[in-house]
Backbone:
């Protein structure tokens, strides 16, 4: 009896070997495609992880206004920046709501810098009069993978006298 089952099984396999081989091949192609898809996803995640590990993050702080030695018509602000991320920040530009772009250049990992900015009294007054929703400074830069990064720094004024208030960063958001 046992011999009959194995003989009939072998006869079945022999007579349908082409169909069985075609089915096995299709199944193997599906499994291989699935593994290729999963490998592709893994490679993308590794690439994103590698790029994020080299992300520059520029932190901005502002000191001022100070009275300018030039004239009482100007206020002096110190825009201090630092790269607290793990990558080089390329083509750093910051922009006040009342002024054109100010180019800083490249900022290395851990590098700190300061940009003195003299604002005319009228421009300082314009900053003071901005509604809270418009009080932000854009920091635009790229990383070594040519991704564009924008940091939005929201600021407020602190101080009692309207003509002598300090700008203070109250919140910042990183946008990739």
Residues:
């Amino acid at each position: 009896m046992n011999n009959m089952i194995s003989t009939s099984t072998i006869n079945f396999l022999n007579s349908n070997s082409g169909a069985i081989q075609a089915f096995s091949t299709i199944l193997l192609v599906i499994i291989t495609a699935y593994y290729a898809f999963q490998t592709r996803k893994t490679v993308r995640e590794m690439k994103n992880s590698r790029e994020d590990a080299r992300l520059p993050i520029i932190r901005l702080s502002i000191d001022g206004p100070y009275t300018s030695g030039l004239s009482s018509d100007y206020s002096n602000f110190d825009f201090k920046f630092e790269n607290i991320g793990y990558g080089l920040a390329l083509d750093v530009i910051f922009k006040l709501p009342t002024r054109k772009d100010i180019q800083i250049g490249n900022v290395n990992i851990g590098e700190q810098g300061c940009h003195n900015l003299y604002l005319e009294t009228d421009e300082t007054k314009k900053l003071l009069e901005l509604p809270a929703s418009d009080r932000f400074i854009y920091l635009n830069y790229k990383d070594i993978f040519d991704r564009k990064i924008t940091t939005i720094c929201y600021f407020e004024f602190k101080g009692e006298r309207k003509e002598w208030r300090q700008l203070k960063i109250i919140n910042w958001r990183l946008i990739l």
Observations:
- The longest helix spans residues 17-53.
- The beta strands are 58-67, 74-83, 89-95, 102-107, 112-120, 136-142, 148-158, 166-175.
- The helical segments are 2-15, 17-53, 121-129.
